[in-house]
Amino acid sequence: MERDYHSLDIASFQVTSVRQLDKTLKDLSFSGRTSEAVRLLWHTGFKVEHGTYALLLQECIFGKQYKKGKRIHAHMVIVGYVASEYLKTKLLILYAKSGDLKTARVLFNMVGGKNLISWNAVIAGYVQKRHEEIGLTFYYKMRQNGLTPDQYTFASVFRACAALATLEHGKKAHGIMIKCNLSENVVVNSALIDMYFKCSNLSDGHKVFSKSLNRNVVTWTSLISGYGQHGRVTEVLESFHRMKDEGFRPNYVTFLAVLSACSHGGLIDEAWDYFLSMKRDYGIQPRGQHYAAMVDLLGRAGMLQEAYEFVLEAPCKEHSVVWGALLGASRIHGDMDLVNHAAKQYFKLDPQNAGKYVVLSNTYATFGFWDDVAKVRSMMRDSGIMKEPAYSRIEVQGEIHCFLMGDKSHRKYKEICSTIIKMMCTLRDAGYVPDISELIHLED
User: Fold this and answer.
1) Cβ contacts of residue 14 below 8 Å, gap of 6+?
2) Does residue 330 lie in a domain region?
3) Contact, 219 vs 254, CB < 8 A?
4) Which of 92, 113, 134 is the last residue of a domain?
5) Residue 271 pLDDT greater than 60, yes or no
6) What do you get for the CA distance between the two ends of the chain, in Å?
7) Residues whose CB is less than 8 angstroms from the CB of residue 16 and which lie 6 or more positions away in sequence, other chains included
8) Are residues 106 and 129 in the same domain?
9) Residue 40: which residues within 8 A CB-CB, separation 6 or more?
């Protein structure tokens, strides 16, 4: 007789055999009840077979239930189960996707025969956590170990190159991608187009798109967003209409790129048409960023009252990005009443976000309200909130250099400082006066 797993009482569950436990865990997992399976695993305290652990870990990875996956790992350690290379790889993927790169790195080092899946997991993990330089380092190590990259490798590598704006590394990877016969892979081409545009190489970005025989909405959106990043409003709208003419339905990211382009181009009527068509023609509910783009558009046009009323009527007015857009617009036009109101709403929605303290401080500093700046800084200090140090990156002759604020560890630190001083003197002699109105007022 089949057990009714919908009424399973974990607390009173009796294990008659490991085989019975394995079957129960698998049945729970297959029926989408991974949480109960993990709880049952812990409740019994028994070792289960390799396939059961593998299935449960895969379900946790697929469902992004990383904490539950880590509980499975803890159970394996407690009961003394020695993980196979396959399970170590699964655990590596789990920890990398969860953002726990320290543990992922340990597991990566433990894996004996590192395969492409292991390398891809650690590369993607570092890129997703904004450690793109390390991700690229692992990519080159993987190549040195004789492994051939696949579509997942290149997708991560091109994202890393896009974030770092390192065109030289991106072009090298592009060449290897061609040799790997992945030129018609939609996922890879979309990431490649994005990389070229973010490296300000619009010509090659468009060339990759034009040569792509297999296109989908992501490919088109990469092209449209790329043109939008460079203020090419005409190309954005032309590409958008071409995409629709070829039978592709835009998604919410596509519309965001189009609305942003309209904002930069001052195309108010066109923006309204696109905004309204999202839900009317495509069933896409506008999100906070779409409303923010419209607020930005109205703000740029000096229509602050209309922007404010639009925010109040927005179904997602509890989204901080909408109030952030209104704050920026009112700040530009010097409307202090609206600045104060928008700032309070913006800050209230996510008070633990360090970036918002900075925005608020800079806003008050713009108008010379130094007492308010000091209050914001005091609130930030009292709450124990720290802003992550700012940093910049630059590529010189194929090498990526990272500069952290206040860091003096670069090997050419003295030469860099000397060059900056010379540049500042040249600018000053030419009559340049820096605008320091947006610098945060720091107490001594």
Assistant:
1) none
2) no
3) no
4) 113
5) yes
6) 77
7) none
8) no
9) 8, 10, 13, 21, 24, 25, 28
Write out the H or E segment, with its range, that includes residue 160.
helix 151-164
- Report how many helices (DSSP H) and strands (DSSP E) the chain contains, helices first: 23, 2
Percent of the chain with pLDDT over 70: 86
d(CA 326, CA 311): 8
Q: Do the Cβ atoms of 443 and 374 come closer than 8 Å?
A: yes
Read off the pTM: 0.78
State whether residue 279 is helix, strand or coil: helix
Residue type at 217 in one-letter notation: V
In terms of C-beta density within 10 A (0-12 exposed, 13-18 middle, 19 or more buried), how is residue 339 classed? buried
The domain tally of the chain equals 2
Over the stretch 160-219, which tens digit does the pLDDT of each residue have?
A: 999 999 999 999 999 999 999 998 899 999 999 999 999 999 999 999 999 998 899 999
pLDDT tens digits along 344-370: 888 777 776 676 677 777 777 777 778
Question: Which tokens is 331 given?
Answer: 């700040």
Q: Is residue 402 part of a domain?
A: no
Q: How far is CA 265 from the centre of its chain?
A: 26
